[in-house]
Prior knowledge:
36% of the residues lie in helices and 15% in strands. It is an alpha/beta fold.
Amino acid sequence: MPRKGLRHRRAAEGQPRSRGTVRTLRGGRRGAQPKVVALGGGMGLSASLTALRRITGDLTAVVTVADDGGSSGRLRDELGVLPPGDLRKALAALCGDDEWGRTWSEVVQHRFTSEGALHDHAVGNLLIVALWEQLGDHVRALDLVGKLLGAHGRVLPMSAVPLELEALVRGHRPDRPDELSRVRGQAAVALTPGEVRQVVLVPHDPPAVPEAVEAVLDADWVVLGPGSWFSSVIPHLLVPELLDALVATRARRVLSLNLAPQPGETDGFSPQRHVEVLVQHAPKLAFDVVLADRAAVPDQESLCRAAERLGAEVELAPVAARGDTSPQGGSSRHDPELLAAAYDRIFRMHGRIGPWR
């Protein structure tokens, strides 16, 4: 039998499953789908959404709005709007695999190349901002873009006000390795050579989008991560109304870990260190499952102990794309089919409070 708190997915590799490792659904009914809410930003959230849309048609993405770099940062500075980039990526990830979905996914992700003002702007960013200006409603505009794209789910911002990320960093200045500095801005935090110790949002205590809070409270499953830990994952826990909903929801919760540390932001972090940092920022938030790729966890016992602080079990599953490596040598990209299979097993095996809707 697996060690307490740790489950290896033997079935995925054709090995027999040990007795006593599976908990069946309570009250589930065949043919129904779970309501799933995925929180994050950037490519990590896109990976989750690409996987999750394969296993449920009732999917909502709640996206961070603290980006201040690239096309998003320029639009934010010039027009005072929410940064649209991560919202665009989420919408693109929800596009289907048919010709319509592939075409629109490529269109909204397309970036202009020029020597003028349009250089590096993404088509989807301009479309989203244009609809915000036309409709004066963030949620309605994103729903309309999703309808145009044929998105398999809904995309919501976590807050309706642009946010800034501020980090407490040790050694941000290489010539002063022990000095603590405050670093402002998502782009600066992501690239710091120092060790990020804590992050906060500016303004503090920002309001959550009501539809995002409602989605979390009404979910069957909530998935947080993978993604840039300090700039895409933890910011959701710094919006008080959203954190309250995550704590209060009757949904089961999955924490999906990254495949490798991110240079700069989490350089040198172990899987258990990612969990410990999350506990530091939201000590009252519990999880049911911590999902990790087996090859990315060299110290399984330490990860189990960290997961126990969340009230969670560890699920190890092969979810990394083969032949794609990060600068640290581990895989840098999730395989959509493998990640979908891992989520599906978790949803089916870890019980339910009530039947799928």
